[in-house]
Design brief:
heterodimer; A: 718 residues; alpha+beta; Aldehyde Oxidoreductase, domain 4; 5-stranded mixed sheet; 28% helix; globular; B: 149 residues; DNA polymerase, domain 1; 2 domains; 5 helices; 34% helix
């Protein structure tokens, strides 16, 4: 099965050694601890004889810290020694084989912890119970007389002790208990604490193996180009013209819409692909442009038919009878996730089995894509998850996994690593959806907001990626943060007459889940327009909002404003506010900016308040909040993907700029954590980044920015 | 054959001299700690030291390196004892996904070697690497902490 390659053997061994035991080659590979003589206590916990604790993590780790947070929750109930904890990822194939004992692997929507805290803690508690019972049985005493702490079990009457490592094998043979009462949050010693991450050390030495770093004996590397226009097809390509180039092994059609060059090394594959003459059949969308999409969305702003997401009272009548009517139209462009690690997957297909090694946010979806592309039963396939070099929603899709399998299927027995170029990554994406929004507000004579109509026109993510989830044609996800109620993302303001509706307009460019998703533009539309209304009513933007805000929304906004000394900015600086509820959490921000005479913006400081209910790791929450401003402000400052001749124009970071350290404001986090619910943390804050800063820019300059990115605008004071 | 000095070791490699150093390190020498991010010297994920200077290896043909000493992330602490910079990164829990952090650490190490007590303005000028997770606040704090260590 191994092709001859020109790589030097020592170099290869260095690479595979770094891959570690988790990437043991061949089929049926399973987590290291489960393979050896050490039996698991249960699906979540393996205790080694040396007292090492291995906690199984079903969700993906892409930098958001979920791996550490989930391990804290299991460890809390397990009562183990935190210093002995390590983690491993079970494979999606094992989950299938074990009747989904680890349940959902999908890691998106800031759901990693809030959706699984209950059953992972049960996993830790059940393991603790079995370990205690095993010790009690060994001592022939009632289990009720024994207690566990810090990986040690004590028989209270006699003072005898043993360790988890000594009784783990016996514990693994016991019947698991039923439901166990979980510890109250107030009693937590490991969860809830600002602990350092478990996965940092190998990120400092180059040792951590990302998907792009995978090496296997006899592995070849593939570079790929898909039709630049979505929906187009591969016409023809002249394989003979590049087949004799150094290292080139195969030139292959993939899925009818892409070509891959397979070579000994990535650079050889890349060079040959660059030289390869390819004729594309670009299909019916080859004339679509940003201008034509804009026209399509403009039509939707005034269209008669629209899906209603939130209706209270009679907004149309309130607006018709208003003392003053305020109107504005905003827009939000396509944006690429641009994770630092480009898409990649390594596949090995033999005819009987297919295995994939890849960074994915959704291991089970990657497994399903593998089986479908391989044409094999799911039971004959598996996916080995690596750490992700960024995800941001992009790696919830399995398009790159499918491609890797389709390439490998044409070279049976040879492992192939497919690595996208940054150019491929920038153009072959399901982008942040494009929308516009027309807002009309009704003010009475006293300046109260008596009615609001918010008409969104534009793209649906579900229509692009999950059309089966549309509800009678409507995409409920469009209304993130705008819902009349519910635990996920309710609209924050009580307005007597309210209408929020969506005219769905779907260009051919794919729309996808992009960190923060639809809350990003919805919060921008609502919060910037609230600022406009407050100014029109000649009221302070905080006071204007406070009168209408629902309690938890008001608390976080007030917390951010108070900590930021809202209204008392240093000379030359100005404040702007924004709030939203999204992904089950309430967030708010107060930005402090200045704009100089030349129109140069400086974001000095942002105070952000978060009420995520229960806080599992305050230190990591702070990092997610600070990082959210980098993601949200990069999008606000520079993020726009435009369309020409049906294709995305921006192909790399030179045309799709992002924030660097010199633009990073000081971010201060106020953690409210009011308890009683579990909200997400990785995404909601992104949505308040842009509106808080844009409102501060208005305060500084009198300029109201209604379309992004900011780099297109002249901010010199009017 | 091209002779390279990588992390203090002489290595001879049969490769086209036009191949970017990044891909020689990753695919021929087998050191994958140096990352591919953009290929156009924008993002800095591929930063290595060439005679102590931070260089984006994706744009440097291997044939142009000559006898210069290359240090990669794997060579920053060859004996396994973390440098002051790596230690600060560990203590302050800087990385999130970590993919850009090899480049960040190489850039920060070069900055501190040249400017032992950098100001915020020095950091802004030297640290032009892209981090999409948004670790910049922690990166700045860790550089200051390493300077004081």
């Amino acid at each position: 099965m191994i092709d001859t390659i020109k790589l030097d053997r020592r170099a290869f061994l260095v690479g595979t050694a770094a891959a570690g035991a988790g990437f043991s080659l061949g089929f049926g590979a399973s987590p290291a601890a489960a393979q050896g003589a050490v039996p698991e206590v249960n699906a979540w916990v393996v205790i080694r004889p040396d007292d090492g604790v291995v906690i199984r993590i079903a969700r993906s780790e892409m930098g958001q810290g979920t791996l550490t947070g989930l391990a804290q929750l299991v460890a809390e109930e397990l009562e183990c020694d935190w210093s002995k904890v390590s983690t491993e990822f079970p494979t999606p194939g094992q989950n299938v084989a074990r009747n989904r004992v680890w349940r959902n692997f999908s890691t998106g929507g800031s759901r990693g912890i809030r959706e699984s805290h209950d059953y992972v803690r049960q996993g830790g508690a059940a393991a603790r119970d079995m370990l205690i019972r095993a010790a009690a049985a060994e001592w022939n005493v009632p289990a009720g007389e024994c207690a566990a702490a810090n990986s040690t079990i004590t028989h209270r009457p006699s003072g005898r002790t043993t360790t988890y490592g000594k009784v783990a094998a016996a514990a693994s043979r016991l019947q698991p208990p039923g439901e166990i009462a979980l510890k109250p949050v107030a009693d937590w010693k490991i969860a809830g604490k600002p602990l350092n991450r478990l996965d940092t050390a190998d990120k400092l030495t180059g040792k951590l193996v990302y998907g792009a770093d995978i090496k296997m004996p006899g592995m070849l590397t593939a570079a790929i180009k898909a039709c630049p226009v979505v929906g187009g097809k591969l016409g023809s390509f002249d394989a003979a013209s590049v087949r004799s180039m150094p290292g080139v092994k195969h030139v292959l059609a993939v899925d009818g819409n892409a070509v891959a060059v397979v070579a000994d090394t990535y650079w050889q594959a890349h060079l040959a692909l660059e030289k390869l003459p390819i004729v594309w059949d670009k299909g019916p969308n080859a004339s679509v442009s940003s201008a034509s999409i804009d026209t399509m969305l403009d039509e939707g702003l005034g269209a008669a038919q629209a899906f209603v997401g939130n209706r209270q009272g009679d907004a149309t009548a309130a607006i018709a009878g208003a003392a003053r009517r305020i109107e504005a139209t905003y827009s939000f462009p396509y944006q690429n996730h641009a994770p630092m690690e480009p898409m990649n997957a390594t596949a090995l297909y033999t005819g009987q089995r297919c295995e994939v090694w890849c960074p994915t946010q959704n291991g089970e979806a990657a497994l399903a894509a593998t089986a479908e592309a391989a044409g094999l039963p799911v039971q004959s396939c598996d996916v080995h998850k690596t750490m992700l070099g960024g995800g941001f929603g992009r790696r919830g899709r399995s398009d790159y996994v499918r491609q890797a399998v389709l390439v490998a299927k044409q070279i049976p027995g040879v492992p192939v690593k497919l690595l996208w170029s940054r150019e491929e990554d920038m153009t072959q994406c399901a982008f942040h959806p494009i929308t516009k929004c027309k807002l009309t507000g009704a003010l009475d004579a006293a300046g109260n907001l008596t009615g609001l109509h918010m008409r969104i026109s534009g793209q649906s993510i579900l229509a692009s990626l999950l059309p089966q989830n549309l509800q009678n044609g409507m995409d409920p996800v469009v209304f993130q943060g705008l819902n009349p109620g519910g635990a996920e993302g309710q609209f924050g303001y009580d307005i007597p007459n309210l209408l929020i509706d969506h005219a769905m307009r779907n260009p051919h460019i794919l729309a996808g889940f992009w960190r923060g998703v639809n809350a990003n533009q919805n919060a921008l539309y609502v919060e910037c327009f609230m600022d406009e209304l407050a100014r029109a009513a000649n009221q302070d933007p905080l006071e204007f909002r406070r009168k209408m805000l629902r309690p938890k929304h008001r608390v976080v906004l007030e917390a951010a404003a108070e900590k930021a000394n809202y209204g008392r900015a240093p000379a030359g600086r100005h404040h702007g506010l924004a709030q939203v509820m999204a992904f089950g959490s309430y967030v708010a921000a107060c930005a402090e900016v200045s704009v100089d005479a030349r129109g140069a913006l400086k974001v000095h400081k942002i105070v952000a308040a978060t009420d995520c209910g229960v806080a599992v790791n305050p230190a990591q929450i702070h990092r997610q909040v600070a990082g959210s401003f980098v993601y949200g402000l990069s999008a606000m400052l520079y993020g726009e993907c435009t369309v020409k001749d049906g294709a995305i124009e921006q192909t790399n970071f030179d045309a799709y700029n992002v924030m660097r350290i010199d633009e990073m404001p000081e971010v201060e986090t106020v953690l409210v954590a009011s308890g009683g619910f579990w909200g997400g943390v990785g995404e909601p804050t992104i949505a308040v980044a842009a509106p808080a800063v844009l409102n501060a820019i208005f305060a500084a300059t009198g300029k109201r920015v209604r379309d992004l990115p900011l780099v297109k605008h002249d901010l010199r004071r009017v | 054959m091209i002779a390279l000095n990588v992390n203090g070791r002489e290595t001879r490699i049969d490769v086209d001299p036009q191949t970017p150093l990044l891909w020689v390190l990753r695919d021929h020498v087998g050191l994958t700690g140096t990352k591919y991010g953009c290929g156009i010297a924008q993002c800095g994920a591929c930063t290595v030291h060439i005679d102590g200077q931070p260089v984006r290896s994706c744009g440097l043909p291997v044939g142009d390196v000559g006898s210069a000493k290359i240090v990669t992330i794997e060579g920053l602490a060859p004996a396994g004892i973390l440098t002051k910079v790596q230690k600060a990164w560990l203590d302050l829990d800087v990385p999130q996904c970590g993919y850009c952090q090899s480049g960040m650490l190489m850039a920060a190490s070069a900055l501190l070697a040249a400017t032992p007590n950098p100001t915020d303005a020095d950091i802004d000028a030297a640290m032009t690497n892209i981090c999409r997770c948004g670790t910049y606040q922690q990166v700045r704090a860790a550089i200051h902490a390493a300077a004081k260590a």
